[in-house]
UniProtKB/TrEMBL annotation, chains A, B:
BP GO annotations: terpenoid biosynthetic process
Species name: Ligaoa zhengdingensis
Principal EC category: transferase
Protein's name in the database: Farnesyl diphosphate synthase
Gene3D superfamilies membership: Farnesyl Diphosphate Synthase
Keywords, comma-separated and alphabetical: Isoprene biosynthesis, Magnesium, Metal-binding, Transferase
Family (UniProt): Belongs to the FPP/GGPP synthase family.
Catalytic reaction annotation: isopentenyl diphosphate + (2E)-geranyl diphosphate = (2E,6E)-farnesyl diphosphate + diphosphate
Catalytic activity, EC: 2.5.1.10
Length: 257, 257
């Protein structure tokens, strides 16, 4: 469990959760159990994704993936353990119980069959055949977007933000979520294996539909820039103490790993 | 997910949760989301336990196990989905938020590395070598006992019961939990495959330590009876409307599946 969650990683979901809580007037200490929980959910999903019966990936973040390092059985249980620990940690929140309960429901919904797991299922169903663009956007929205959206919404909810704020935060997360996934598609073609910590070209090899196969590299890059601009503008709806989140939003668009 | 959770099964955990909520003056409607949640957690654990990298079991409750019916990948995700759905369902509880949050934490703790999953890990570590009795009791306490204890405690907590009631409920669950597991050990030797819905003799085949290998069939049966008596007496601490739970306690000791 530690190997899967405490290694390298950008901690984007945790950072977004803490920052949006702060932007809505909450304290980040209040949001910390949920920030940890969302990283555990993310880590569990990577451990199970890498398993032989899933993507059969031997490498993750530049190290042997969990099953490669500890065996399949231990990796299965470590993933199960992290998903469970996420809810154990979040339910220990000291936020007002009604807010904590609402936040827990957002977390569970985003990770489940109508969120991340549902996206995973679509992904597997179309592994070796072309996926229509509409479904690709939906799949990305569930597989990557759902947890990012949960992160910002949970931050807002824990701070007691109004519906308006939650709406704009959600819009923001949808933009950067799609941009994030398109950047992944681009990096799988143009990326540096050393910086990425995983082999490139795997999408093409497995015949996956991506934004790069649907459009061109240039067109995909333009979409990332447009989405990032829109996301940046949505940040104006919040009163920020500093420029941290604007900088983060820009940096995600030009990331190399 | 439906195949794994809606098939045959005794629903012991759900029934205990609902009954203890009622015994502490709560309404069973209030406890229903948690009763569903705990059955989902139980069902997920069975799906993952049966996987090829775990027990490699082709049969469950008289039907092909989930991976045998739908393939390994789908079974993995169905288990993940049920675990997630459990917390989604429980967090939708209409109980007072502070009680719901406390109940959620009990559920997560009982299922995680200090509970059910931890027991699973001990079990796997000793798969082909003898286990000392002390560790066997601890392993049973975690693998089967933790979720049964969670069931009764959650029922009490949702009803707003005092610490005393929760303590006696927990004691009760510990007794029937151990008895339940010893009966499993006995049925693996004396059971009827048709009634059980799974092959017998699997413990002996895999060289597992059980209460039957540690003692004799007769001695194990005596322990079941003693534990059941103790459990029955603990029920006197609660004011029951009817004899249902007393009958259930007795029936669990003489069950054939």
């Amino acid at each position: 469990m530690r190997y899967g969650v405490l290694g390298a990683g950008k901690r984007v979901r945790a950072i977004l959760l803490l920052e949006f809580c702060r932007a809505c007037g909450g304290s980040w200490e209040l949001a910390m159990p949920f920030a940890c929980a969302i990283e555990m959910v993310h880590a569990y999903s990577l451990i199970h994704d890498d398993l032989p019966c899933m993507d059969n990936d031997p490498l993750r973040r530049g190290k042997p993936s969990c099953w490669k390092a500890f065996g399949e059985t231990t990796a299965l249980l470590a993933g199960d353990g992290l998903l469970t620990k996420a809810f154990e940690t979040a339910s220990g929140s000291t936020a007002p119980p009604d807010r904590a309960l609402a936040a827990l429901q957002i977390l569970a919904q985003s990770a489940g069959d109508t969120g991340m797991l549902g996206g995973q299922v679509i992904d597997l169903e179309y592994e070796n055949r072309p996926m229509p663009e509409e479904l690709l956007v939906r799949m990305y929205g569930q597989k990557t977007g759902a947890l990012l959206r949960a992160a910002v919404k949970i931050g807002c909810v824990l701070a007691g933000a109004d519906e308006n704020k939650i709406f704009f935060a959600d819009q923001y997360a949808q933009k950067i979520g799609l941009a994030f996934q398109i950047v992944d598609d681009i990096l799988d073609v143009t990326g540096d294996e050393q910086a990425l910590g995983k082999p490139i070209g795997s999408d093409q090899e497995s015949g996956k539909t991506t934004f790069v196969t649907l459009y061109s590299l240039e067109e995909a890059q333009k979409q990332v820039e447009a989405l990032t601009d829109e996301a940046r503008r949505l940040l104006d709806k919040f009163a920020w103490e500093d420029e941290f989140l604007c900088t983060l939003t820009d940096r995600l668009a030009v990331r190399k790993n």
